[in-house]
Specification:
mainly alpha
């Protein structure tokens, strides 16, 4: 079998504490194994071909409806995280396929309008809302018309625990959590400069002197630091100096970019998502079939959150206009 060659390569080249593909804890529902692909490779493919993954291209990362073609979307952020995670995994002899699958799936549950949308749904819904939990829900419950993707335990756990408050169970999951931080800080700087929120000379001098003035330099600096600090150890980490520099840069971005950018879309996102939430709570019979099933089994707040969080920015705006904006000639 072709897959056996992959197992042999992993046995020869992966670190002993890496998550080997033939040692997965398996899936919730047993399946016939694939002759060509390992379970982690199969998970990666299922995520790439999922509807939720396709929708990421039209979901906000930080800047809503930017005037230009070269801003990050939720999809390009996801690909960035995947690339950084694979680079670190390769350098540490850890499982690239597992890292890639977790990275590609980590933001599948994100709302329209970025983290602003996430906060709106968390506030208006009685069931609460957190995008990492919703990402797991997407692959477990919502994809494939309610059947889910039936991913492996390791990928599911990595998706759930990719946030700063998470508790990764594998070194590969820790890599993805770290790659997410590296990715969004650095590409968000480039977007903020492009959008006029920042000038490069405004960035804090200490972190920039350590990390570099260009995005590629900063990403390479962190990756090299992680590889140096983590060689020969299952504990994936960066040096204290690098951690401090990234933390200072992250704080700077929150104060000078994220809070400012969020103010612009906060009111619109609150109005649209709040109105849509109220509408479907009052008229749940108008939910699509999948979410009607969820409403019957788990309650209407859960179903409405599932539906709204699945929307792209464009779809949410269009639906809001359809339901609430008067059309010419229509009384």
């Amino acid at each position: 079998m072709i897959k056996e060659k992959t197992f042999e390569k992993e046995a020869a080249f992966l670190a002993p504490y890496a998550t080997h593909s033939n040692a997965t804890r398996g899936r919730v529902r047993e399946e016939e194994p694939c002759a060509m692909r390992t379970d982690f490779q199969r998970d990666r493919d299922r995520i790439i071909y999922s509807k939720a993954f396709l929708r990421l291209k039209n979901k906000t990362q930080v800047f809503f409806a930017p005037d230009g073609d070269h801003y990050m979307s939720r999809l390009t952020h996801t690909l960035d995280v995947s690339q950084i995670a694979r680079s670190i995994a390769r350098g540490l002899s850890l499982n690239e396929d597992l890292c890639e699958a977790i990275a590609l799936g980590h933001d599948l549950g994100h709302t329209p309008f970025g983290h602003v949308g996430e906060r709106v749904l968390d506030r208006v819904s009685s069931c609460g809302f957190h995008h990492h939990e919703q990402s797991l829900r997407v692959v477990d419950r919502l994809e494939k018309d309610g059947r889910g993707l039936n991913l492996t335990y390791e990928v599911r756990s990595g998706i759930l625990n990719h946030t700063p408050a998470g508790h990764p169970e594998t070194p590969e999951a820790e890599i993805v959590r770290m790659a997410d931080l590296i990715a969004y800080i650095n590409h968000d700087i480039e977007d903020a400069v492009r959008a006029g929120y920042l000038r490069k000379e405004d960035l804090p001098k200490g972190p920039i002197s350590l990390l570099g003035s260009r995005s590629s330099e900063r990403i390479n600096s962190v990756i090299e630091d992680v590889l140096c600090e983590s060689q020969g150890s299952p504990d994936v980490r960066m040096s204290a100096g690098m951690q401090a520099a990234l933390s200072e840069l992250r704080t700077f971005m929150f104060v000078n970019v994220y809070e400012q950018a969020n103010k612009i879309i906060q009111e619109s996102a609150e109005r649209m998502l709040g109105a849509l939430y109220t509408y479907f709570m009052q008229k749940p019979e108008e939910l699509p079939a999948l979410y009607l099933t969820v409403a019957k089994e788990e309650g209407e707040p859960r179903a409405v959150c599932d539906y709204l969080s699945s929307m792209t920015d464009r779809y949410a705006i269009g639906l809001f206009k359809q339901l609430f904006v008067p059309r010419e000639g229509v009384v």
